């Protein structure tokens, strides 16, 4: 997701001697771990890819509110309700930070919304899966946020200053998200037979979609190489997926739940798990718009935006009146 | 402004600066959209301070901020590289790159 | 204090029922507002309305927690929220009104806040220390709610032609639900005479003053009708509350005895 699915333009990394002088200084600054800031010179490709990546990341936060907000009104206790609402609110905040980071690159938030609403710009495929029971709130926090954090922590070191700073803030706030999800799973896995069944069912449904969040294997991709040279992508998709599996399998065991992969086994030599790849046909189908909830998710965003037209216009009209009044007074 | 203009207009972008309870300088915390300054401050309370008491908020319309722009002109391009030249690798840059 | 007296009797609402009124208002309004999460008209509003819901959920826990304590039957705040049926709820009809457009939601919030703040200020002086403490904790949050909702009412009322129309029709739609807040005829007279609850008159005056000033600034017309819809405070609700509870209480009802 996020950095993982963004195709970089161009034909891979330019060798140093083919670069223009500006490009060379630019690459040198990145290699030296200096941050690139909004007004600095940057190659067009860098700017374009960053806009695409950050806006997709922002859209994912925004659309990512929906599967969880689906359960706020049904949360089983007042405390769970408050925690879930605070968490989903954080996602809105993270979307806001990221849109602002992208805006420093010369695109406006409303333009990015247009791209989302028209389907031109994508968001993480995971949010096109439904949340069917309360245990899904646990699974989303534990697995989906777990995968997101794995992706976001390295992005705090990304080369673009505003993006890196947004990621620092996001990672700080996100620390409780995965924990609250795991905590729900613990309650469910140790609860009644019905709760346990819900917990296992949630893991069954979210396991492979979570693995898909890291994107298809990209170890030989030239696109990926360019993004990594620019440090807008820090790890390969496979590295992150492996790390995620290695971290998550023992947690599932701790919960007494079964990871839905009969070929899953520990490899002593590599010191990591061997696991079954997700069904990439399903992944591409969801990406193409054929996931269980694609239509509903996008429609919810389009409706929220269109229904809010009069509200935003009203505020602007009022601000214009106030300015006019101040003008008269002055 | 007519209402049809407003439908295409965007809520302007504001930069938010917050001074915490410990009396340090106002620090840039991020940006947000709002119709005017007063609303930007209200929104900042919700978005950036989660309404902590005792903080002071400044809101400045982003378009009003003057920022140095290193790549606009050559004379300004040099100082931007001042960070680079402190690094040994700066010296790998060949002479052809005269403008730098 | 009377215990587990849940039905409206001739002597009026008990302290327990009064605390349910306070808690249920917060709970049902938080529920309604939380339905906007992910669907707000701007990201900043989405975040702000979630903050208001979070405050109200916190206040619900305090009021219903105290209600359970006063009742003395061992019911927790969660038991009261999740295991009562509609006729045992004591919230105002106003807060169970459906969300409608964002204007209707804001107007509902504004009218509630304009009552809620003076009510809490009055309750800060309650002779019941526990009530005064909850009011003390809530009053700053609610002062901010009122500041924010008033600001938006003014901006949208005095905004575009369309926003003005929407806010006026929201006001017209909700006005008859405000009267229920403004008298305490439903309460046992001793609650006021013994100083647990403030005099209704002062709260009504503060409400009327703030509302009329704000509406004037907003260029909105206060409806002339004096018709008052009542029922919520005595447990006679609209059809809407049943659906709110069916959704809210689903898990607790479907899986009795489970812990979450």
List the helices and strands and how they pair.
The complex is a heterotrimer of chains A (330), B (100) and C (260).
Chain A: H1 21-31, H2 44-69, H3 78-103, H4 109-117, H5 135-155, H6 161-189, H7 193-212, H8 222-229, H9 237-255, E1 265-267, E2 272-274, H10 280-290, H11 294-307, H12 309-329
Antiparallel strand pairs in A: 1-2
Helix pairs in contact in A: 2-3, 2-11, 3-6, 5-6, 5-7, 5-9, 6-7
Chain B: H1 3-8, E1 13-19, E2 27-33, H2 37-47, E3 56-61, H3 74-80, H4 82-85
Antiparallel strand pairs in B: 1-2, 1-3
Chain C: H1 15-34, H2 43-71, H3 77-82, H4 93-96, H5 102-123, H6 129-157, H7 161-174, H8 179-182, H9 189-193, H10 200-217, H11 239-248, H12 250-254
Helix pairs in contact in C: 1-2, 2-6, 5-6, 5-7, 5-10, 6-10
Count of DSSP helices of chain A? Answer: 12
What proportion strand of chain A?
under 5%
According to DSSP, the number of beta strands of chain A is 2
Q: CATH topology of the domain at 3-67 in chain B, which one? A: Ubiquitin-like (UB roll)
Structural class by SSE content of chain B: alpha+beta
Q: Count of DSSP E strands of chain B?
A: 3
- Profile the largest sheet of chain A: 2 strands, antiparallel
Question: What multimeric state do the chains show?
Answer: heterotrimer
- Give the overall shape of chain A: globular
**Which chains make the largest contact?**
A-C, 49 and 51 residues
Strands of the biggest beta sheet of chain B: in what spatial order? 2-1-3
Could you tell me the strand content of chain B as a percent range?
Answer: 15-25%
Radius of gyration of chain B: 20 Å
Can you give the mean pLDDT of chain B?
70
CATH level-two architecture of the domain at 3-67 in chain B: Roll
In helices, the fraction of residues of chain A equals 55-70%
State the distance separating the first and last CA atoms of chain B.
46 Å
What is the straight-line distance between the termini of chain A? Answer: 52 Å
What percentage of residues of chain B falls in helices of 4 or more residues? Answer: 25-40%
- Low-pLDDT runs of chain B: 71-100
Q: What is the helix tally of chain B?
A: 4
What does it look like?
The mean pLDDT of chain A is 93. Chain A has helices spanning 21-31, 44-69, 78-103, 109-117, 135-155, 161-189, 193-212, 222-229, 237-255, 280-290, 294-307, 309-329; strands at 265-267, 272-274. Chain A is mostly helical and 330 residues long. Chain B has a domain at 3-67: Phenylacetic acid degradation B (Ubiquitin-like (UB roll), Roll). Helix content of chain B is 28%, strand content 20%. Chain B is built from 4 helices and 3 strands. Chain B has a 3-stranded antiparallel β-sheet with strand order 2-1-3, covered by helices on one side. The longest helix of chain B is centred in the middle third of the chain and has 11 residues, at 37-47. The model of chain B is unreliable at 71-100 (pLDDT under 50). With 260 residues, chain C is an all-alpha fold. Chain C is built from 12 helices and no strands. In chain C, α5 crosses α7. Residues 1-9 of chain C have low confidence and may be disordered. Chains in contact: A-B, A-C, B-C.
